[in-house]
UniProtKB/TrEMBL annotation:
All residue ranges annotated as the Homing endonuclease LAGLIDADG domain in the record: 25-174
Originating species: Candidatus Taylorbacteria bacterium CG11_big_fil_rev_8_21_14_0_20_46_11
SUPFAM superfamilies the UniProt entry points to: Homing endonucleases
Official protein name in the record: Homing endonuclease LAGLIDADG domain-containing protein
Top-level division of the source organism's lineage: Bacteria
Pfam families hit by this protein: LAGLIDADG_2 (PF03161)
InterPro entries xref list: Homing_endonucl, LAGLIDADG_dom
GO molecular function, one term: endonuclease activity
Length: 203
């Protein structure tokens, strides 16, 4: 399987460029597969529940050279009469070319030939994954049809992880792949998110 070419030197105007390091690329791939959103003009918004402030601050530190100045900001959303607090920060408006890779007809997709590294997988899992006590799950409601088949194929071909696509929009890591999955992502799971790992991680 080939590897998708993702631009590492981004350009907003003729003389304005932004350089993405290989580590930042891996982190961003995980973020975009997870909760991050790339706006039409190329700005990336990274936002999580205020309970995950430590995780947001870790991301902000890792991606600092790509961000607008300032610390992550708190915001309150109201949904069906309930108030939800979250914290977010923005990446500079250079990522329009990446939006063309990860979105099709305004919907997020899993790109063909995407290189999914253990770090990228760990970020995606910290964003959208959970350990139920019996199952390792990743929320994949955004990915339907061909995208779901593609991401399962990438997980198996690149990382030897076998999965099941459940009918409720969750990706289930097969029990026989738990140890492989945990060994790959565990080194990258930050302290505040380690509750998402089985205990012991080889369960």
């Amino acid at each position: 399987m080939g590897s998708l070419e993702m631009t590492m030197m981004l350009r907003a105007r003729k003389r304005l460029t932004l350089s993405v390091t290989p580590r930042q690329r891996e982190i961003l791939v995980g973020c975009i597969l997870g909760d991050a959103y790339i706006a039409t003009l190329g700005k990336i918004r990274i936002e999580h529940s205020i309970k995950q402030r430590a995780y947001v601050e870790w991301k902000r530190k890792e991606l600092q050279s790509l961000c607008y100045p300032g610390e992550p900001r708190e915001i309150t959303h109201v949904y069906r009469g309930k108030r939800y607090q979250s914290v977010f920060f923005l990446l500079r408006q250079y990522f329009r070319v990446w939006r063309d890779i990860f979105y099709q007809e305004k919907k997020k997709i899993f790109p063909k030939d995407l290189l999914l590294t253990p770090l990228a997988l760990a970020i995606w899992y910290m964003d959208d994954g959970c350990w139920t006590g019996k199952k390792i799950l990743i929320s994949t409601e955004s990915f339907l049809g061909e995208s779901m088949s593609r991401l399962q194929d990438v997980l198996y071909r690149q990382l030897h992880i076998e999965t099941i696509a459940s009918s409720n929009g969750k990706l289930v890591i097969r029990k026989k792949s738990h140890e492989i999955f945990c060994n790959l992502v565990s080194p990258y799971i930050i302290a505040s998110m380690r509750y998402k790992l089985p205990n012991p991680v080889t369960t």
